[in-house]
Design a protein that fits this description.
The chain is an all-alpha fold. The chain has 13 helices and no strands.
């Protein structure tokens, strides 16, 4: 029997203690077996579930999902504590120092005119912290584990700060057209289609950036819209039988009718 005092209300220290117990001798076999790598995807999944709670504006769900993310933070910190590297207090110490250092207009005597200058100072301080001496260093620091659309936008934004950007959206649109042409050519001449698809998507992200549209969110909304329309399409098709027995022209007419009703 584990010596742990159960109570009506728990705090952060209790969470740390529970994780220590689960990972200890006589603790939970599953928790004891885990490594950073084995629970890596759990962290990603829990983070996306927080995003879903935010999108739903569900504060009860948000509280629960933030707790699940907090479990992951404590879990990884406990693994490192056992290895003698750092503990959760070191994590908190590091982030506190980072926040103080990157807010010199709050914790120092720096004056700022608004949030734009705050972000500029943040980036400059960050580059100094990370020892980023070149613009390439800044681009190379963008995490490779990010979703591809998000990473593309961040790379482009950092390239813009280095002066490498179209002067207007027309250049981005021209590049988009150029990439479509190169994809068509690759298809007709058995070229590197995957590469050209990548270049096309990168150009789409560039156009979105000029329009201040988050490409990740835009695609997510498009996914949800497609899902909703497909559900209605299936219901409409069922009035005529199985949708698999209808040809694409018939289905496309139903699809366009559904789109018309949305307007």
């Amino acid at each position: 029997m584990i010596n742990f005092l159960q109570r009506d209300k728990y705090g952060f220290e209790d969470l740390i203690r529970i994780m220590e117990i689960l990972r200890s001798e006589g603790g939970c076999p599953w928790d004891r077996e885990q490594t950073h790598e084995s629970i890596r995807m759990n962290f990603i999944e829990e983070t996306y579930e927080v995003i879903e709670a935010i999108d739903r504006k569900d504060t009860t769900l948000l509280r629960e999902e933030l707790g699940d993310v907090l479990i992951q933070v404590v879990f990884h910190a406990q693994i490192e504590k056992e290895l003698g590297s750092f503990n959760i207090d070191d994590v908190a110490d590091g982030v506190c120092k980072k926040l103080i250092l990157r807010h010199p207009h709050i914790f120092g005597d720096v004056k700022v005119s608004g949030s734009g200058e705050v972000l500029e100072n943040w980036d400059n301080i960050k580059r100094c912290e990370k020892g980023q001496k070149t613009h390439f260093d800044a681009l190379d620091s963008v995490a490779r584990s990010l979703p591809a659309l998000m990473r593309a936008e961040k790379l482009q934004a950092k390239a813009k700060k280095a002066g490498f950007d179209w002067p207007s959206i027309e250049g981005a649109f021209d590049k988009l057209g150029e990439e479509i042409g190169e994809l068509k050519l690759a298809i007709s001449e058995d070229g590197n289609i995957e590469e050209e698809i990548g270049d096309l998507l990168f150009s789409v992200v560039n156009v979105a950036r000029f329009l201040n549209v988050n490409p990740e969110l835009a695609l997510d909304k498009a996914n949800n819209k497609f899902l909703s329309r497909f559900g209605r399409l299936e219901k409409e098709a069922e009035k005529h039988g199985d949708m698999r027995d209808m040809n694409i022209d018939e289905l496309d007419k139903l699809w366009e009718r559904i789109k018309t009703f949305e307007r």
